[in-house]
Amino acid sequence: MTVLLVALGAAVGAPVRYVVDRFIQARHDSLFPWGTLTVNLAGCLVLGALAGSGGLPGWVATLVGIGFCGALTTYSTFGYETVRLVRERAWLIAATNAAVSLAGGLAAAYLGLGLAESLGR
Amino acid sequence: MLGVIAAGGVIGALARYGLGVAFPHPRTGFPWATFGVNVSGCLLIGVLIVLVTEGPAAHPLTRPFLGTGVLGGYTTFSTAMVDTQHLWRSGAAGTGLAYLFGTLAAALAAVWLGILAARWWLGLRGRRTA
What we know:
The complex is a heterodimer. Chain A is mostly helical. In chain A, 84% of the residues lie in helices and 0% in strands. Chain A is globular. Chain B is globular and about 50 Å long.
């Protein structure tokens, strides 16, 4: 059952990542990987909220947390895009991508947590 | 295309889930499973992109399936950040920082290594097309 929940969440999360990335890259054609940043930050927001929602049944965490957020977000694409920027000598953009992704991801996680906790009261 | 990506995503996510179950970590312990998944996924994406772009012609769905799908579903940015957040909130600040920056450093190094390894291998085979 847990396996099915992970699979279902991932079956939605991965294509959503692809569609969102293409949508954003089509409208912001720059070196900076806006698409990956967007899905990664969104996933951190959702997972952070989940972490602050202790009252939810376990299957929700499995479906949305492990399945959906896990597939929506990606470290491999983030890593590859950062390294590619370095190899293309776009040092500042590479460093900015790493810094903004990490700081933004953590900020989104804390925001999600805070929102969930305040809604839970 | 979306179906191919979804299928890959399911495979990657299940692999990640399986490793998480096989290698659990205590509340304030270093999240080795997620660390391993993200770093290995980065190594593999370095290899994959080189093979697809510089190697012999592959099926056009190879990169969406294996890259966007499998490796995208396998690796996870959200878990890495929320793991860090959890460690910080549990008083394990040092572990959290080590995990946050350790993952970043290892992941980027792994991508680089994957690229170099794949290029070396293609060079050995005389199959570099770019």
